[in-house]
Amino acid sequence: MAEGTIKRLTDKGFGFIDTGSDKDMFFHSSDLEGVSYEELQEGQRVSYTEGRGPKGPRAENVKLA
Fold it and tell me: pLDDT at position 8, please?
């Protein structure tokens, strides 16, 4: 699993993970495991699996690291 830091959370139930590269990874609240969207905070470390969404790369199986 890859790891990153939550860069931005929106009030619409999705956010972006700073992967340490040029591109941030999109995630949706439905991709979370073992944590609710309301518990997340910007700057937290997370682990995830890289998947594909309809608009490009997407983080799946997102958990607190």
Answer: 98
